[in-house]
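Re: [help] complex structure
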Amino acid sequence: MKAFTQHQGLVAPLDRANVDTDQIIPKQFLKSIKRTGFGPNLFDEWRYLDEGQPDQDSSQRPINTEFVLNYPRYQGASVLLAQENFGCGSSREHAPWALEEYGFRAIIAPSFADIFYNNSFKNGLLPIVLTAAEVNELFAQAEATEGYQLTIDLAAQTVTRPDGVQYSFEVDAFRKHCLLNGLDDIGLTLQDAEQIREFEVGYKNANPWLFGAL
Amino acid sequence: MAGKTLYDKLWEMHEVKRRDDGSSLIYIDRHILHEVTSPQAFAGLRLAKRKPWRIDSNIATPDHNVPTTKSERAGGIDAIIDKVSRIQVQTLDDNCDEYGILQFKMNDVRQGIVHVIGPEQGATLPGMTVVCGDSHTSTHGAFGALAHGIGTSEVEHVLATQCLVAKKMKNMQVRVEGQVPAGVTAKDIVLAVIGKIGTAGGNGHAVEFAGSAIRELSMEGRMTVCNMSIEAGARVGMVAVDQKTIDYVEGRPYSPKGADWHAAIESWKNLVSDADAHFDTIVEMRAEDIIPQVSWGTSPEMVLPVSANVPDPAQEADPVKRDSITRALKYMGLQANQAITDIKVDRVFIGSCTNSRIEDLRAAAEVARGRKVASNVIQAMVVPGSGLVKLQAEKEGLDKIFIDAGFEWREPGCSMCLAMNPDKLGSGEHCASTSNRNFEGRQGAGGRTHLVSPAMAAAAAVKGHFVDVRELLNEGA
Ligand code: SF4
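Output below.
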């Protein structure tokens, strides 16, 4: 997993509430065998005018020019500004996979759905909760200013605007630690590899039949 | 100090470490893989240049996507018509071959639904932790194992570390005492439990099913009950070990042998809740009160005895419930107060990890014997849970009974339980199904699922509408 320490990036505003994971990545793409390749299908139904199929070359498809992520000024955005209850619906981990692959490193919203919030941390994507008033200020500024960028500092837990105004946000200490150090859950568990091995030896002695060859 | 529950014991046996944040590392004994939720986990493993921790803990089989007709199966993987399904099945093969993981391939006679083959092979044993990227992994809890479904990141986590990060849940006991009436099965028991406690009733709990009616069930029946604990909100369902458990496990291909066997059964005898164990929640039911169940709505808790009428939203005071009843009736194409026995069925599906074992097929065949599928039923299919179940059924002549009655006799797989392969409902069609989920679109877009036991499904097939199977059983006697 990519570590997240500081990040400065272009902001794209997605001004809709209750964006669900079906909208983030529609179900026909779940038949894929990969964890990658979802970027081109992020927000598929909104981004394209035709209906997306799993094995299509999306670069050839008709683009919905009215969808905000397709505006020329938001190309290369890495910070998504969103509204309340972002990521609700199905638990599919394909949603953070798609956002991350598209190029987003952080999402700022007044609230997130639980499972999506958890899944994001597992995939190096930082969900930031600010107050509704703060988020609305950011929407106003991002829409008014072309090339609007924000600076996010995870260690300091701050979001800094171009005019120097700073907002602070909360994040669970354990998750912060993992993300700062790029430790995915597996990396973290493997820090205890020695202890797992020791456990395994004792456990095998007590229950040898559980270690029969399959 | 209060004694320990079965869940407490299983948890303690497998706790490698308690972390500062209150979560624990839990050691995993058995990891079962299928083609849909594993590919990304293998890809992640490769990307991070990690190796599986313990190959011999893993066992795999393709089930969700595999076709179930003889003709499509005969040509092997290359002949799977749906290209995306073909790639998923092929990828499981490639991953298992690369890492040396034991797999029962698509046309191996031991292939079948993940939750059928584990116990059948003795790969699921009492006292194990069993996980799989599938929510119905709770099935394996019937053996006094701690078993639950996991997500794709966790599949990768288990492959790489042989552990899961988990927090201990609360203990719930569902006690069913007494004797069920004749013709009432494990499926009816668990549907009645879900109808009583609701689909969120078991949230945050590990459920132990207990009481004389549960002890009375065969291992197949206990698996059916544990299978659906997730439909009551509980990721974990369990039944304590007894002589039936041990008899079922004995002599299976991967169950312990010789001295190991004797040591194993000694330790398994401890896999019961202590008499003075504390449960956070206890639910009690009388077996005598349970009659055959039929789900009428779009959530497993929307279930009633076959003798009942579907609800009338006008009678419901709670506006949220009223609204959900109205929406469900509309989706299901039913009238308020309509008798359940007036619901006509268009298709019948006997199969899935809930009800595709030999005992299930025997129960359905008993009803189908000498009868014919009603003319209004477009299709009635029987999909055995594994190649070995199919073989056993054929040995007993059950296939012939079904075919003579007008049922299709299929190759093993998940099939119409989730309709990821070509077996699907058409929009608006009603299906008497022995599966576990009646969500909107679960068996095909617009499809209307009614959850029932295998005997009730067979009865609906021959009558063309829902009927109390006991009427047919009496008439046949
Ligand atoms: S039979 Fe149905 S519920 Fe069971 S594993 Fe297959 S798809 Fe899932």
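The longest strand of chain A covers residues 6-13.
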